[in-house]
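Its record is set out here:
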Amino acid sequence: DEAKALIKQVLQENFFTAVFDDAKGASGTHSGGTRDSTLMARMPTRDVANKHLHKVVEWLHAVLLRRSPWKTWTNDVYDAIRCIDHLPIA
């Protein structure tokens, strides 16, 4: 699906660059010292990141197209806000 491919590309470029960037991922080196090395040690593998990215793409696609169970998500948010408005302020 073209829409899912576009969503995946945008998410990958903006949120998963450190995992999927071949130049950094293949060599495992970053300039910047210990902070970057600690970050790389906690970095998920490409397989784990790819599975998570796939789930996020599926979810966002369903939300944008208002597919079940996300068909009425905006109504749910508005209902929750209305409930909060009626709570007493302490």
About this structure: Residues 23-33 have pLDDT under 50 and may be disordered.
